[in-house]
Design a protein that fits this description.
With 179 residues, the chain is mainly alpha-helical. It has one domain. It contains nine helices and no strands. The longest helix has 19 residues. The protein is globular.
């Protein structure tokens, strides 16, 4: 499996957000690329589906930084919808919204664009769980992607942000998770 090391849409968006991402820029960029690479393989994506996954990957967690909240699914999706409007791709709105909105769902999601949504959901879980979950992706591929896009403290940052949110919102410690 070929590893995508650069993608113009993701690179453009990530570079625009670099000031807001600050010290987390490389950690987030690499997470985006890991999830993107895993999701295109899991979905067997081609053509427009690759671009949809690229846009979703770039936006999926960015609300954490751009909107300064751990309850970031809606802000991330809203920003993606605004971007789709700017590039005249509103017809992709439902797919990209569902990819972003469902990517922390614990159980299988069913609906239109299920292949893309589920592939992305599984890819993100695989990365966040440090490859501990079962996957149809070969271990060599996971290792190759990780070698090209190291973690750079991404998971440590997630723990820090989760803890900070949970201390302030003890009755809603994990607002991004869905069953």
């Amino acid at each position: 499996m070929t590893v995508v090391e650069t993608h113009p849409t993701m690179d453009l968006l990530l570079e625009q957000w670099r000031p807001n991402l600050g010290a987390d820029y490389l950690a987030y960029r690499n997470h985006v690329y890991r999830v993107f690479n895993f999701s295109i393989c899991l979905a067997c994506a081609t053509g427009d589906d690759i671009e949809k996954l690229a846009i979703a990957a770039a936006f999926h967690d960015v609300g954490m930084w751009l909107d300064n909240t751990f309850d970031y699914l809606k802000p991330s999706s809203r920003r993606a919808m605004e971007y789709l409007s700017q590039i005249d791709r509103e017809e992709w709105s439902e797919a990209i919204h569902q990819i972003i909105d469902q990517h922390h769902k614990v159980r299988t999601w069913r609906g239109s664009e299920q292949n893309l949504v589920e592939s992305f959901r599984k890819a993100d879980w695989l990365d966040v769980c440090l490859f501990a979950l079962p996957s149809k992706l070969k271990r060599d591929h996971l290792t190759d992607v990780l070698h090209r896009f190291p973690r750079e403290g991404f998971h440590r940052r997630l723990v820090f942000l989760t803890w900070g949110w949970a201390r302030k919102h003890p009755l809603n410690p994990l607002p991004i998770f869905k069953w």
